[in-house]
Amino acid sequence: MSERKIKLQIKDMTKKYDNGDGVEHINLDIYEGEIVTFLGPSGCGKTTVLRMIAGFETPSAGVIRIGDEEVTRLPANRRHIGMVFQSYALFPNMSVYDNVAFGLKIAGMAKREIDARVREMLALIDLEPLAGRYAYQMSGGQQQRVALARALAPRPRVLLLDEPLSALDARIRVALRDDIRRIQRELGITTVFVTHDQEEALSISDRVVVMHQGRADQIGSPAQIYNRPATRFVANFVGTLNTFEAR
User: Fold this and answer.
1) Neighbours of 1 (CB within 10 A)
2) Which of 38, 63, 105, 107 has a CA positioned 20 to 30 A from the CA of residue 242?
């Protein structure tokens, strides 16, 4: 069995804000084709970590590598990362087709290649018949599928998902969660997912990073996180395990 290749490396990453918030000493190797979820309550630092990987925030200390390249100070538009936001962030004046084609046009791809790639992406998210529609003509779940296709179309090195399901109702959330996992496995793309939803994190992830007050309290598989919590916070936040006072 060949050794797994590290695709994204976070080394001693720290971000300090003037108000005292931020994250401290995050260390994590994410492997090729792996989906890792940062899980925690509001204000725990999970989105700050994602924004630093994306290049929207600069760490106060530490190093970020994608493949063999250090990207710690590299602008977001040069990191070759796909990003899906909670709010879909589709261009309202563009059709589904043009939204998915947007990054390919910016990259200067030939028209015929763009067409082939867009159709491939629309087939992947099962929305080929809606290519000519606009965002306001679609449900939230359909819009988020388009946002996912748009992020994946330019073949990014890493896919980042920032609470992509939290604006959807429960039934659609479960269906789209399954779609994301299927597509991620099909493409083998290294993925970082951020959520506050424990069930979401445990069902979709290869590994989970439980964040608490700016630190990674525990990193492990969903089974490890649930069955063998490392701290009282992890035990109370992730599961329904009994805790006992002892001396």
Assistant:
1) 3
2) 38
Model pLDDT for residues 106-155, shown as the tens digit of each residue: 999 999 999 999 999 999 999 999 999 999 999 999 999 999 999 999 99
Any idea how long the chain is?
A: 247
| CB-based contacts of 230-234 (< 8 A; 24+ apart in sequence) | 234/210
What is the rounded CA–CA span in Å between residue 79 and residue 193? 17
Entry pTM: 0.92
The 10s digit of each residue's pLDDT in 71-81 is 999 999 999 99
Alpha helices, H only, 107-216: 111-124, 140-152, 170-187, 198-204
Q: What is the 3-state secondary structure (H, E, C) of 54-120?
A: HCCCCCCEEEEEECCEECCCCCHHHCCEEEECCCCCCCCCCEHHHHHHHHHHHCCCCHHHHHHHHHH
* Cα-trace Rg, the chain: 19
